[in-house]
Structure formats: C-alpha cells, structure tokens
Specification:
The chain is of the alpha/beta class. It folds into 2 domains: about 180 residues, 3-Layer(aba) Sandwich (Rossmann fold); about 80 residues, N-(1-d-carboxylethyl)-l-norvaline Dehydrogenase, domain 2 (Orthogonal Bundle), CATH 1.10.1040.10. It is built from 11 helices and 8 strands. An 8-stranded mixed sheet has the order 3-2-1-4-5-6-7-8, sandwiched between helices. Helix 5 links the parallel strand 5 and strand 6. Helix 7 packs across helix 9, helix 7 crosses helix 10 and helix 10 crosses helix 11. It is globular. The protein starts with a strand and ends in a 17-residue tail after the last helix.
Length: about 290
C-alpha cells in the first residue's frame, strides 16, 4: 500500500522531525500534540530547519513553502483526523500512554491504516496487542536529529505481516536521506542496545574520575572517528531520556551491564538534563 497521508501524534523533537521528512517526501501530514505551545514550537523547529536548507542553497523558497503547506497542526485529534494511510506516535517513552493512543486510533482509523511507533526501546508487539490489527503494527525508530540522521530501524513485531513491512520499508527508503533497516522486536532493538550502554559507560569513567568530559569525548572523536563524543551526545539527547532507556534495558534484561550510572541519576535529579536545560555534562548551552 502506498502511504500518502500521515497522522503524527507528538510534535516534539522526534515528532516534528518525522513530520518534516514526511512532508519533504511529498506526503500530507497532520501533526498533533497536547498543548498549542508544543505544536507551535514543533512547527517553528521545522521552519527553522528548512530555512537553513534554503540558506545553504539546498532548496528554494518555493520548495520550502510547498513543504510547509503539506503540514497541518492541531491540539485535539479525533475520528475526523484518522482517515489516513499511516498513524504514528512519537510521544514520551511511556507504555501506558502509547497503548492508550493506539486504542483510540484502532477505533477511529479505517481498516487500511498502518500503525507505527517511534519508540526507541519499548516492545512494538505489546502496543499492537491492544489493537484489533496487531498485524498492522510496526516500529519506525528514527534517530535524532531526524532530518540529518540516515537510519530508520524498522522494528517488526511478532504479529507484523509482510504487507505491512513492505509498505513501511518502501516509505522509509523513499524519505530524503534515509535508509530503512529491518530489526527484530527486542528491548533497545540494535541502535540503543549498543549506543546507550556505551554512553552510560562514558558517564562511569567520569564518575570514577578517570578523565574529564572533554577528554572522554576526544577519545571517541579521535580514537573511534565518532562525529560527536558520548557525553556531548548525552546532552544533545537529554539525560532524562538516557536514564529512562537504561532503566528499561536493565529491567528487561536484568543484566548489571545495563545498570544506570549513579552520576547519571544524580544529574537528572538536579535537573541538569543537557542542552535543553542549559546544563548537563557541559555548561556552555544557552537556555
């Protein structure tokens, strides 16, 4: 099935990025969030991103205007908004909230609609299990920042059928600068199961006094050829998000290698969440 109309629940960092690339690919997108201020911030982020592309000569003002024209927004979504080919959520990593969204979508969306989650850690199969169409549930794990990062993890749940997978694979590979890679439904999938424990270990080296943040990051930059150091990446993603992922991995696998570093927990308790809070492992951000 060709995906032409998309409903996006969540206008935050991931939601607005996904809405942007969907619209850039020529699709109609309706983006919703629970507060108007969240929606306004999301659409402003999209416009700022597109403005940078115009300034760099990667697109024209007319192309930018056309992309923005394919995105509609709102606060309260209901049955009238659900006649879409793909209904996707990019809300916080809260399983109860995600399940409640898919229960509503299941009652309001037509039979053709595919459901997708941008979860980075939680089980896709469990989300599909609360609907009457678990065969139409799939994960589309985009990486941040969405317009720049190339990877989409296509997470296949236990009940996901081949038709659903093929439709979403085609969608993923049609998005600008994106490659769709199939993975199984396992906590953390592949990306976060490798990346987040690495960042947690970097925090342990800071906690244990092995080196300062810039030294730790430079080891990754110069020794591993990473484009960004693990501590700076933690700040970019949000330390609260990193802690939440580690807690899920630790809970699901029960392996001490997934135990969150005490320093990570302390920073989150202090509200030092990284770039979005103006302070994290680095203190050179503007609030």
């Amino acid at each position: 099935m060709e995906i032409k109309k998309v409903l996006m629940i969540g206008a935050g960092q991931m939601g607005n990025g996904i809405a942007q690339v969907m619209a850039m690919s020529g699709r109609q997108v309706a983006m919703f969030d629970v507060k108007q201020e969240f929606v306004d911030k999301g659409i402003a982020t999209i416009e700022k991103s597109l403005n940078r592309s115009v300034e760099k000569g990667k697109m024209t003002q007319d192309e930018k205007k056309a992309i923005m024209g394919r995105i509609t927004t709102g606060v309260e979504w209901g049955p009238k908004d659900c006649d879409v080919d793909l209904a996707m959520e990019a809300v916080i990593e809260d399983m109860d909230l995600k399940k409640s969204i898919f229960k509503k979508l299941d009652g309001w969306c037509p039979e053709r609609t595919i459901f997708a989650t941008n979860t980075s850690t939680l089980p896709v199969t469990a989300m599909g299990g609360v609907t009457s169409r678990p065969h139409k549930m799939i994960g589309m794990h985009f990486f941040s920042p969405v317009p720049i990062m190339k990877l989409i993890e296509g997470v296949v749940g236990l009940a996901t059928d081949e038709e659903t997978y093929k439709s979403i694979e085609a969608l993923g590979n049609s998005l600008p600068n994106k490659t769709f890679i199939k993975v199984s439904d396992s906590p953390g999938f592949v990306g976060n199961r490798i990346m987040v424990p690495m960042m947690n270990e970097a925090i342990f080296t800071l906690f244990e006094g092995v080196a300062e943040p810039d030294v730790i990051d430079n080891v990754a930059l110069l020794g591993f050829n990473h484009p960004i150091g693990p501590l700076r990446l933690c700040d970019a993603i949000g330390l609260d998000t990193i802690l939440h992922v580690m807690e899920i991995l630790y809970g699901e696998y029960g392996d001490t290698k997934y135990r969150p570093c005490p320093l990570l927990r302390k920073y989150v308790e202090a509200g030092w969440l990284g770039k979005k809070a103006g302070r994290g492992f680095y203190n050179d951000y503007k609030k």
